[in-house]
User: What shape does this take?
Amino acid sequence: MSSTLDEILNQSRSWSETIAAPETATGGAARQLLARDDARIVLFGCGSSYHLAKSAAHSIAELTGRPSQAVPASEVFLSPASVLPDPKSTIAVAISRSGFTTEVLLALEYLKAHHPSMPVIAITCRAGSPLAKLDDAIVLPWADEASVVMTQSWTNMFLAIQLLASSGRRALRDQLRQMPEFLERGLDAFRGAARDLGSQVMRGDTTYLGLGVRRGVADEAALKLREMAQANCQADNPLELRHGPISTITRDSTVCLLMGDAEREYLPDLLSSLRERGAFVGAIAPYPVADVDRLVSLPDGLLDVSRTILYLPVLQLLAYEAALVAGLDPDRPRTLDQVVVL
Ligand code: F1P
Assistant: This one.
């Protein structure tokens, strides 16, 4: 079996391991840091890990009230004044599946040299990596991958950060603990939708639309489709689309809405503008959505922020199926390496 497919399908098991991991493995000390009420949080990573940082920043801000920002790792050492405006009140969160990515290590070196007292929380899936060796690092080896592209590593590092940020909020943690079961229940439908839509997304351009915590998910979905299937795709905020980008939507376009409860009332208006342009419209939503070509249902009765992780598996499977339609090997994405070392 494909290592990429195996890792995607393994997520309910790896999520359960992350949820069950002892506090020390998932950041006991980090929990204390995030509890500081004067802190602002700057998260950084590269590629998929940068998109993870975006969704994690929204989650931390929503769950703790702390101002949180996600930046590419390179901006920590190349544009520090703009990304670290208040270093004395900042906690840094370094995210890297491999724990070896050059820009992440350069960012850490910059912080050590210029802000040695700034707390740094490192999260990685690779034991023995430079990130894993940092004090109080969060290491999730059960979520590491043989594949080039990130799938379970993304969702498990994201889940670990959400568990950290939900400290003391029992109802929220209970919702997060249900995620493996929700994935098990939905997996057959996710696989069916991915198989059905694999050729659709290869017809023309694809746009993923996500708001707030789901914007990083939309960016990650577009990167998966680009990495595995070499497809023409992009991501945007659902209400931003009509401020220009919609001009490129045609009858060969696919638009996938990663809908939450927050933006539900704006959906009909957006859908009619997409329909006028003849686009194929898919939606992943925790409620019925009329007038779309394909709906993937997610469980309702959850906070949008808790449900975030459930959007990823179907989007990962869609990129996998699109790669097969394109005659490409998802395990060997063109010109990509698992770790970028400059
Ligand atoms: C970051 C990354 C991945 C990308 C590719 C190259 O890796 O950019 O997001 O898919 O594998 O590396 P990491 O810093 O999270 O190990």
Q: What stands out?
A: The beta strands are 40-45, 68-72, 90-95, 120-124, 138-139, 206-210, 233-236, 254-258, 280-285, 294-297.
